[in-house]
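Help: read this over?
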Amino acid sequence: SSIILLHSLSLSPKVQGTHPDCSIVLHFQRREAECLERIQSESPTTALPGEEGGGCPTEWDGVSCWPALPLGQSRAVACPDILNVFKKSKGLIQRNCTEWGWSLPSPPYHSTCQLETLGSNNDTEAKACHFVTMKVLYTCGYSTSLAALLLAIGIFSCFRKLHCTRNSIHIHFFTSFILRGTAVFIKDSVLFLDESINHCTMSTVTCKAAITFFQYSVLANFYWLLVEGLYLQTLLLLTFTCDRSYTWGYIIIGWGVPMVTVGVWVLTRLQYDDHGCWDDYSSLYWWVIKAPILLAIFVNFLIFLNVTRMLAQKIRCPDLSKTHKQQYMRLTKSTLLLIPLFGVHYVVFALFPEHVGVDARLYFELVLGSYQGFLVALLYCFLNGEVQAEIRRNWGKWQRSMESNVFNLATQDFTA
């Protein structure tokens, strides 16, 4: 029965391949390591089963550690304390020390502890199909976002009239989304390309580098959103005065702060928690990444409230022209929409343990999150009136140039 139980436990993390939750596997690995240390520390005084005065040595059966026991006695243990694997049960599992060694667990683990993950093949196939479908959805989402973001960067870069500090910040923001989408594809290819490898026990330099790059891209994404909010507030305070002296400060916040944070996180993991592939979100050191993200979201929320207050004051101002009011509305509507969109779900899930609301967390972070880049490109570029006007102007200029070339060509043919 313990073999069936271990097979069920090893199956669960593989099903959740799109968002690794290895707490179950790591829990039993720690328990096994503790039991093996106990076995090694014990003096080999316990005789082998079958010998005169023999007993049963300490043994790890794959689920529980059974301390050494004299011949003819029995011992009972409770169900393992893993709430997201076992239902609460007051039953005990018993094993006897016989002359042939330890007896089988009675009653079996899966019946006494009411194993949650032990389901039919249909249930397993349904879960696998669900996560495969989710992976297809977020792959389509990130691909769409990458295409839209690259096109938006091309538009801002090609048209000289669009070159300004505001659009330069937008380009950096778009780049952080591109890095985030690329990091997701790299992480999937490294961790989940080979189904025969258990990613929970993988501990290679390549997988750690992939996770580090992913964490950096996520941090940079949130901090460039913070820069967007800071710049919007600066514009409102300086009445649309483009001050390039702040550009390097924004770059330090957007790229530098995440780099320092991830550097501290890497050094911490190397020194104190260098096991696995560093994708265990139940680790205490995960707060080195999570705390700066929550800080950025909190500051952005304060900016959101302040900008809303300033905008309401300026719109009510009777001396402000209609043109300036339209400018304020155009510059603020995108950022005011994105700040709560980016932060609300993250704050909600940050207040709960990682194993709570896994399905909802996966849906928000992977499926809906994969389309955020497309939404950003849509709001800041494709629906931007200034960009649309510049595209129409250049399109009309190109059409007139083509018509002129055709006319000149026809005239040359006629005169010839």
About this structure: Residues 121-158 form the longest helix (38 residues). The CA atoms of residues 37 and 344 lie 45 Å apart. Residues 133-387 form a domain with the Rhopdopsin 7-helix transmembrane proteins fold (CATH 1.20.1070.10).
